[in-house]
Amino acid sequence: MSRDEQPAAVQEVQERSSQQGRFARLVGEFLDYLGGVRHLSDNTVRSYSCDLQHYLDWVGREGIMPLEVTHRQLRGYLAQMSQAGYSPKSINRHLSSLRTLYGWLLREGVTQQDSAAAISGRKVPRTLPTTLTDAEVERLLESFDTTDAEGLRDRAMLELLYASGARISEVSRLDVGDVQAGKYAQVRLFGKGSKERIVPLYQECVRWVELYVQKGRPQLVQRGKGERTSALFVSTRGRRMSAAALRSRFELRARQAGLDSGVTPHAMRHTFATELLSGGADLRSVQELLGHESLQTTQIYTHLSVGRLKEATRRAHPRG
């Protein structure tokens, strides 16, 4: 039986299956584009991959033609996620992944419609980032022994997080040569999209990094069975520490300091930004130091700094 002689329903199923298979291959090309052309981090590409695989599964279950998907169908997809208990923030992340994908497909001439572009995201309650007080930072930095190699490494890592506002993934990628001492004390960071930025460091931070590099790091590198590495922060096996490994060390030191279990390395980044704004730094400078693409991302810290000023006034003013 020729294709023209097949029942319309059978042809429709075959066309749908063919388009879904092509769409899955296009998703793979899109992920390659994110990593190879836009130079997004492995974690970001992995996040896109998970979101889009969830969408591909739904497309298959519902029998959707993904290159011809309608606004109504996409709204139904998001509604199903809401019914399944996904948070508004998570739903918005999935929607953002779809918008980026369909925008790319449109630019590539693969599809003529972008139904995801006009869909509004869910309203997410605005929450302020977690920050540490001066006393909590001091407790964190002083709560463990720094006479051994691991202690020196962890102290240098914590000082660097606090001094630079770096993401934990950025600290993981640091090489020894990325931290400069002396008159021009600074660190060279590579953020999202491999964008480079230079952040000045205070001398106490540089002192701890130098102490670790001179006394702690050589001991750790020796345990690497002769393997050479340029990594600044190395494990007890002498290898570069991943972001997950550094995060684990941070959490250990936070527990030892008696800090809240919800405190993460990102709290140091939030604290860095808030301290700068509270001390009079302008928003553009803080944006550049944090490596934010959009000033809007940085603006949340203005609310934090104002809140801290209000709290200080309340405590200190006789009629507060």
Overview of the structural elements:
This protein is mainly alpha-helical. It contains 13 helices and three strands; from the N terminus they run αααααααβββαααααα. The protein has a three-stranded antiparallel beta sheet with strand order 1-2-3, with no helix packed on it. The chain starts with 7 loop residues before the first helix and ends with a helix. The model has no long low-confidence stretch (mean pLDDT 87).
SSE string: HHHHHHHEEEHHHHHH
Query: How is the main sheet built?
Result: 3 strands, antiparallel
Number of strands: 3
Helix/strand/pairing class, anyone? Answer: mainly alpha
% residues in beta strands: under 5%
Average pLDDT reading: 87
Helix content: 55-70%
Shape: elongated
- Number of discrete helical segments: 13
- Rg, rounded, reads 25 Å
Q: Give the N-to-C terminal Cα separation.
A: 87 Å
Widest β-sheet, arrangement of strands: 1-2-3
Question: Which ranges are low-confidence, i.e. pLDDT below 50, for 5 or more consecutive residues?
Answer: none
Draw up the topology in text.
Layout: H1 8-36, H2 42-62, H3 71-83, H4 88-107, H5 134-142, H6 149-164, H7 168-172, E1 179-180, E2 186-190, E3 196-200, H8 203-222, H9 243-256, H10 265-278, H11 283-290, H12 295-298, H13 300-316
Antiparallel strand pairs: 1-2, 2-3
